[in-house]
Amino acid sequence: MIVGDVMLYREGLARGLDRLGHVEVVDSLTSPAATEALADTPPDILVLDISSPDTLDIIRPLICAQPGLPVVGFGVGGQADAMRCAEAGISSFVSREDSIEDLDQAVLMAARGEAVCSPRMTARLIRHLAALTGKAHQRTDNCLTAREREVASLVKEGLSNKQIAIELGISPATVKNHVHMILEKLNMPRRSSIGMVV
């Protein structure tokens, strides 16, 4: 599925990919229409025009609608754009200077579960991830109480709230409150994220 707000781009990409014959374009939609279409009939790959400044605002609902859906972003302007795309959940990047053949290859690689990213961008993403991990560890040490660190450690081991309650001699409701505070303090979206920083 190709998603973009400029019909000319969408139609051109659909025809170009069709001409190459490696992938089948099932639909070509604007971002609001794509959100609804993804709920009904999800494609194998989403090809997203990210050249518009507000595209990253709409990618999150698209990815939330279909977690695990590979997204190939095209029209990436530079490394800063690619970094924002990676943070939004886009797994492959095709720059503004790349060809329809490059996009075709990116889609085929995404279908195999591979990501397309230049070596320079890969290095930058690794450095960025290392910096985030370091900040997260620093946040853990600085802002969690001793009890919250204990709870976080047990969450990391995969224990349920009930198991943690038994282990620490507190109620499951208290554990739930601690987990909520940990997520809030570390600015994390879900419980499974705790294990990545503790």
Please characterize this protein's 3D structure.
- It comes from Erythrobacter litoralis (strain HTCC2594).
- This protein has helices at residues 7-20, 31-40, 55-65, 79-88, 100-111, 119-143, 146-156, 161-168, 172-185, and strands at residues 2-3, 28-29, 46-49, 71-76, 92-95.
- It is elongated, with a radius of gyration of 21 Å.
- The longest helix is centred in the middle third of the chain and has 25 residues, at 119-143.
- The two termini are 38 Å apart.
- The chain has 198 residues and is of the alpha/beta class.
- The chain has 2 domains: 2-117, Response regulator (Rossmann fold, 3-Layer(aba) Sandwich); 133-196, Arc Repressor Mutant, subunit A.
- 58% of the residues lie in helices and 9% in strands.
- It has a 5-stranded parallel sheet, sandwiched between helices.
- It has 9 helices and 5 strands; from the N terminus they run βαβαβαβαβααααα.
